[in-house]
Amino acid sequence: MDDLELTCEDILCANLEPSSACALLDSALISKKKQRHVGKGLRRLIDRCVTFIGENATDCLQTSRSISLPVESLIEIISSDQLCLEEEEVWRFVLRWAQFQSDVRTHVSRWSEDERLKVAKFLSPIISHVRLLLIDSRIFAEEIEPTGCVPMALSLERYRFAALPHQFGETDPRLVHRNTPRLFQSSTIIQNDRISLGRKLNEWYGGVTKQAWRCIYRASVHGYSADAFHSRCDGMAPTYVIVLIQNTKWICGGFADVPWTKSKTPRYATSNRSFLFCYDGNSSNSRQQPVKFNIVKKHFALCHDSK
Known about the structure:
The chain is α+β, with helices and mostly antiparallel strands and 307 residues long.
């Protein structure tokens, strides 16, 4: 029976899409509520749905299904450390959900007292799951406080933290940062427990910290030939090449700030910033970091070829 549950779970999760993830999570939680004894398979399915929604939060929480979720399903999502959203975006989604539930369509600046009370009623059981202490003071003052939906005790705590942050311990759950937004959104390699690798690669790139990297070539989909690579990558920069070594958890690759190009004969390209890297995914150390190999001779940084 356990094998059957696991197979069904794998099939369901393999076909998860932003448009269906919230509905599947809701169905799983309804089943959980009906069962006297919750099996490992159902709990595992719930966890995998929450993980998928967390990793694809921007897409999943823009669907019409997300704002019609019951409160139990919403709490399951916004309580997760895996929710890849900045905390102010968590608040904005929660407020949008509460407005939909209360049928209040007007902007907060035009709310009547009756509309404010309706929205506050739906926010009441979930606002404690929004980590208000992590939200910028300006955003709190301009967007959150004007709703009048934050209990006075929470508002005072927020301002006390802004004035005396040293009085709050580092282990306070309200100060635990969620996963950063998924930077390599369409990657099938950098996901789940490898999200930290994506953060480090993006850090090495430098510059903007919140940009997203788009997959333009995937060998398993577009083909393993040089022509397939060049047809999709030529002229593109900056780029990361990310490779998962078959039958292992080792990942290797490199960064290029010079556009790719096809050449009849091998031709070197100069770069000061390009580098190679490797990452041991077999390590049990959750803080395992990739190793970076910088350029030694910049005039031979990259080699363009047609083969």
